[in-house]
Amino acid sequence: MAGPEASYIAGRWKETATRFDVVNPATAQPFAQVASIQLADLQEALQSAGRAFPAWRGKTARERGILLHRVADELVRRKAEIARLITMENGKPLAQSEGEVAMAEDHLRWFAEECRRVYGRTIPHHIEGKRHLVLKTPIGVVGAIAPWNFPLVLSVRKVAPALAAGCPVILKPASQTPLSAIALAQCFEAAACPEGVFQLVIGNAQMIAAELLSNDICRKISFTGSTGVGQELIRGAASYVKPLSLELGGLAPVLVFEDCDLDQAVQQTIIAKFRNTGQSCIAANRIFVQKTIYAQFLERFTAAVEGLKTGPGLEPGMDVGPLVSQKALDGALMQVGDARAKGARLLTGGERMKDLEGYFLKPTVLEAVSDSAACMCEETFAPIAPIASFETEDEAIARANASSYGLSAYAMTRDMGRIFRLGERIEAGTIGINDGAPTVSQSPFGGVKHSGWGRELGTEGLDAFLETKHLSLGGI
Ligand code: NAP
């Protein structure tokens, strides 16, 4: 890649003596080295962001939007190269990396325009001579912590709205996938981003989080990652009353009802399950199929899974890539073994692809899986589809809701009354009806229960970086 493999602080690339390897999951071999920062570098970034805040918030929304459009233009200009980087550091098939770059571009353009619609309110007064206004102002410097599974798009999902709202942002990417974040920083540099407005810090997560929590310059942390780390941040934030947005884990149920279009149900469940090699927070984790169509669904779904092409993401036409690490592969194999020990029947897959060097698992289908199997109660993050049957709508909803997570859920049905009942009763932030890929820039995204606090994307995604103030005027 062009430019240094390092953090971007106060408008400069920060080379340091400490470097770590980035591993390609398709080969299990390191292919790049990235410099990692010290505490003093992060403190410099916070100072720089603090200095940049007054001028950045003082720009008009249109001016802030112009910067985001320029960054989007750069992403588009470099889309092929950046998509390759995503595939090399994360493993996902190239077409999906290209889709990730396109979605990141769309997020940037959506927030570039949406910030022009940050409206306040005028509230009717009840005492003559007074008037009441509601103002929205930027919250201040934001710390953004992103995961490895969608390394570009989940970074942009925080960075774009924070900047659009008028907040300088410091991004910390996952150590597994720092290269696409470096490419994003290069796009900001090429777009002539003012110093300190966008910065990138790569390094020890605990050190960075502790400083973002305790340093008063940072006024909000937006985190996407595991529920365990989210809980740690909540504990840390308590001491400083630091606002958090948390996009955490999921355990999405798929409910397939007898009135569905079966081919469409199979196709959308495949997307919900196997996109990103199953390593998506909204991935289908538990598939429940109505008993009357259970056998038919199993047959068509298993045939479709056997048709998925699995291999290195840079090879053409791949549907499924490697898992992100050996640990992830071991965890997936453990879940398959656990489900079988609890009575599940393996229909396809279930083993490592021994002819490939990287962390490849054959796309797997299990049926008659017990609700107590690990793959039904723990986030799977692997191309494993566990299927069980149900009889009634009430039973399906109860089993869908029997989880501490509530990020997304899916249902395959054409019954309009049922669609409304599911929408109202399923405990999840996003519900895809006959839709295995529901996330779009203009609609809110986030979880309930242990899946997190707050929403990204949509108008709500911008609101996350705005304070709401009441301006009370007397003597009118
Ligand atoms: P993770 O281990 O929680 O890591 C996520 C980010 O947090 C990384 O940048 C990581 O840095 C950092 N981190 C690690 N320990 C930390 C700490 N003690 N304090 C602060 N930050 C810390 O999660 P992951 O394994 O990368 O990602 C998978 C999880 O993310 C899954 O649970 C998935 O469901 C969830 N996720 C949720 C969403 C959503 O929108 N709700 C989207 C995608 C993924 P290092 O890499 O340097 O350790």
Question: Can you walk me through this structure?
Answer:
The longest helix has 21 residues, at 94-114. 40% of the residues lie in helices and 22% in strands. The strands form six sheets. The chain has a seven-stranded mixed beta sheet with strand order 14-15-16-13-12-18-19, with helices on both faces. The chain has a six-stranded mixed beta sheet with strand order 9-8-7-10-11-21, with helices on both faces. It is globular. It folds into two domains: 7-248 and 451-473, 3-Layer(aba) Sandwich (Aldehyde Dehydrogenase, Chain A, domain 1); 252-440, Aldehyde Dehydrogenase, Chain A, domain 2 (3-Layer(aba) Sandwich), CATH 3.40.309.10. The protein is built from 15 helices and 22 strands. The chain has 476 residues and is α/β, with parallel strands linked by helices. It binds NADP nicotinamide-adenine-dinucleotide phosphate (NAP). NADP nicotinamide-adenine-dinucleotide phosphate (NAP) binds at residues 145-149, 154, 172, 174-176, 205-206, 209, 224-226, 229, 232-233, 247-250, 281, 379, 407, 447, 452.
